[in-house]
Design brief:
single chain, 292 residues
Amino acid sequence: MPELPEVEVVRRGLDQWVTGRAFGAVDVLHPRSVRRHLAGPADFTARLSGRSVDAVRRRGKYLWLTLDSGEALLAHLGMSGQLLVQEPGRAAERHLRIRLDTGDRELRFVDQRTFGHLMVEPLVADPKAGGAPVPGVIRHIALDPLDPAFDDEAFGHALRRRRTEVKRALLDQSLISGVGNIYADEALWRSRLHWARPTATLRPAQVAVLLAEVRAVMTEALAQGGTSFDALYVNVNGESGYFERGLKAYGRRDRPCERCGTPIRRDPFMNRSSFSCPKCQPRPRAPRPAGR
C-alpha cells in the first residue's frame, strides 16, 4: 500500500496539473470505486461537474482536492490505486475506474484490485491542525510527522501510554499517520529498535530518535519519488519511484545488514512481515513470571 512519501509524490503532481482547473464530464466506470460515497455514482458525478479545484492536500495516506463548493474530492489509493493525468483521447487503461475531464487533460483513477476509493465529502475544521479544513470522515486521523503542526512531545507521551509493541503503535493511524510497513521497518532499523519492543519501556530520548528517523527515511524516499516494487505504484505521469534501492531492512531477508553483516531476519507480523537485524535490533526479553 502506498505510504506517506508515495502519496505526497502523487499530491505534488496533482497540484501541478489540476489546481485551478474545473471538472467537466465525470464518468464512473466501476461503482465499487465510489462505494464510500453513500449517495451513489450519480450524486458523485453531480457534485463534481463544473466545480473548480482550489488546492490539493494530504494527511498521511489520504489526499484530497478542495473544491470551490466547500467540499473535497477525497482519495485513498488502497493497494493498487493510481491517479494519472492523461491527454484526452489516449487509450483507456485496462483497470480505469473513474475519468474526470479537466479540459486539455483527464484525471483518471485506475485501480486493479478496487481496494481504493474516491468520494466527495464536506470540509470541516480540525482542531488538531489549528482549525484547518479537512474532509470530515478523516478528522479522527492523526497528523503525520511531516506536518508542521505535529506535536513531538504529545506524540511521545501518547506512544509510551499505548502499552503495545512499537511497530503496532507506528502503524496506528490515530496516533501518527502515513507510516506503513515499509517505513516502520526502515525507521526501526535506523533506530536500532526491535519491532516488538514494548512502547512503555521506551525512554524519551529513544522516542525522539525514532521520530527523527521516521522523518528522515520518509524525506529521503520522497526525494527519490517513493518506493515502487512493481507497476502498481506510480506518480501522475506513470513513473516509478526509486527508493527501493535505498532500503536497509524491508524486503532484505537473509541479506547482510549494512551495519554489521548479520543476515536480516523476517518475522510474521499482523498478516504481513517485519524485517530486522537480529544483532543491531535485539528482540526484547520476555518479562519474568511474577514471584520469581
